[in-house]
Design goal:
Elements (H helix, E strand, L loop, with lengths): L1 H32 L3 H30 L8 H35 L13 H46 L1
Helix pairs in contact: 1-2, 1-4, 2-3, 3-4
Length: 169
């Protein structure tokens, strides 16, 4: 049962990390091939919302499943693992509900005009660029935290498997 729970946690994190990496590729491609950057921005914004909500769900499930005590898992690794799940959730929540809300409000101030219509030194464009940068950083934090969590869970799983194989000999 514990092996199944550990494998499920790895599957959840690995799937979300894969989706995040795929999202980055789709974002780059959308801006490269679509005729208007506004279309690309709309696609990326909606895809990012899906990624953020799925990150919240995955982090929540990974955290809940970590409450089921795994044999051989040290307390320090358990708390690091849980903390990383909370970091993923917090980063996804901040990206969606704080930065996303601020970008949406800013777009309202832009009165529907495309971002490229604003001069590079326009305060609205500067603020948009700053929020975009924060969004990129917060997603990077979520991905890095999920990746570290994945490796910690995987390493602990391997250690438990090795210990159980030694006790069978």
């Amino acid at each position: 049962m514990m092996k199944f729970i550990t494998d499920l946690r790895l599957l959840l994190l690995g799937g979300w990390i894969g989706a995040a990496v795929f999202f980055i590729g789709v974002a780059q491609i959308a801006f490269a091939v679509l005729p208007q950057r506004e279309f690309a921005g709309a696609i990326v914004g909606r895809s990012l919302a899906v990624l953020n909500f799925s990150g919240l769900a995955v982090a929540f499930l990974v955290f809940l499943l970590s409450l089921i005590k795994e044999p051989g898992k040290g307390r320090i690794f358990l708390w690091i693992d849980r903390t990383l799940a909370l970091v993923v959730a917090a980063a996804c929540a901040a990206g969606q509900f704080v930065i996303g809300f601020m970008i949406s409000s800013l777009r309202g101030e832009m009165a529907g005009r495309p971002i490229d219509d604003f001069a590079p030194d326009d305060p609205l464009r500067i603020r948009f660029n700053e929020l975009h940068e924060y969004s990129v950083w917060i997603l990077g934090i979520a991905i890095l935290s999920a990746l570290i969590g994945f490796f910690i869970i995987s390493a602990n799983r391997q250690a438990v498997t090795n210990n159980s194989n030694l006790s069978e000999v």
